[in-house]
TrEMBL record:
Localization (cell): Cell membrane
Sorted UniProt keywords: Cell membrane, Membrane, Transmembrane, Transmembrane helix, Transport
Domain of life of the organism encoding this protein: Bacteria
InterPro entries xref list: Bact_Polyamine_Transport (IPR051789), MetI-like (IPR000515), MetI-like_sf (IPR035906)
Protein name (Swiss-Prot/TrEMBL): Spermidine/putrescine ABC transporter
Similarity comment text for this entry: Belongs to the binding-protein-dependent transport system permease family. CysTW subfamily.
Residue stretches spanning the membrane: 12-39, 59-82, 94-122, 128-154, 175-206, 226-251
GO biological-process terms attached to the record: transmembrane transport
Xref: PANTHER family: PUTRESCINE TRANSPORT SYSTEM PERMEASE PROTEIN POTI
Its membrane topology: Multi-pass membrane protein
GO cellular-component term (any): plasma membrane
Signal peptide: none
Length: 268
């Protein structure tokens, strides 16, 4: 009886969580302009209007630029932080790593307001660049969490063996360690990209006059006739997010399996 109750609870929870997402493509292909049942007919006009909208295209390319830049910066910084935290001991290590991971638990609106105050105080004009800074700050803890797991799963004897065979620390890291953690790096890149692409609060505060996809969607919700196009855009974003998260999980598992095999098999 207890097992049946848990299954029913899990089913209700999943329906509550994913039913709104499942309805996105239903209304995106519906010819009616009112988001309600019954459906009127099948159409792809909303997708055509979506791509024909110049403001939406500008918002898309802005979001793509921000997401790619933030993902690369967060992952690069995450590699250094994860490497330092797993390989070396230094004064105030716990406190420093705690401060770096702090955006993970802080409300985003607090981070956004703080960044806005600081940037305006030093005279920085709000633009795509300021959003990249904010998204890098938000994505960094996620990248560090993924990369710390990847570095922790490595056998330290691999690097020591490479140095014993004549490699320098840098070349041992480049030739031995980096290829082993590459799946984790790709996973961190994809995860950071997805988080940046979907992030709204930081972009709302720091984008200035530059639209991003989340802020564009928010601005269009006031116009009922624009809702079907937003449904089409939401469908595309959900599919992109699913693909990216699936790829990130694939590379994460591949990296865990690879480092496990290397750890059991030795350096050669």
């Amino acid at each position: 009886m207890r097992g049946n109750g848990l299954r029913i609870y899990s089913l209700i929870y999943l329906l509550f969580l994913y039913a709104p997402i499942a309805l996105l493509p239903v209304f995106a292909f519906n010819s009616g302009t009112i988001i309600a049942f019954p459906l009127k007919g099948f159409t792809t006009d909303w997708f055509a209007q979506m791509w024909a909208n110049p403001t939406l295209r500008r918002a898309f390319f802005n979001s793509l630029t921000i997401a790619v830049s933030s993902a690369v910066l967060a992952t690069a910084l995450g590699v250094f932080a994860a490497r330092a935290s797993t390989r070396y001991n230094f004064p105030a290590k716990t406190g420093i790593m705690g401060l770096i991971m702090l955006p993970l638990v802080l409300p985003e609106i607090i981070v956004a307001m703080s960044l806005l105050v600081v940037l305006l105080a030093i005279g920085v004009e709000l633009s795509v660049l300021t959003v990249i800074v904010g998204h890098t700050l938000i994505c960094l803890p996620y990248a560090i969490a993924i990369l710390t797991t990847a570095f922790n799963s490595l056998d330290k004897s691999l690097e020591e063996a490479a140095q014993d065979l004549g490699e320098t620390r840098f070349s041992a890291f480049r030739l031995v360690i980096l290829p082993l953690v590459m799946p984790g790096i790709i996973s961190a890149l994809l995860m950071s990209f997805t988080i940046s692409l979907d992030e709204f609060i930081i972009a709302f505060f720091l984008a200035g006059n530059e639209p991003t996809l989340p802020t564009y969607i928010f601005s269009q919700l006031r116009f009922p006739k624009a809702i079907p196009v937003i449904m089409a855009l939401g469908t595309v974003l959900v599919l992109m997010s699913i693909l990216l998260l699936t790829a990130a999980e694939y590379f994460r598992r591949r990296g865990a399996a690879r480092t496990g095999r290397q750890g059991h098999g030795g350096f050669l």
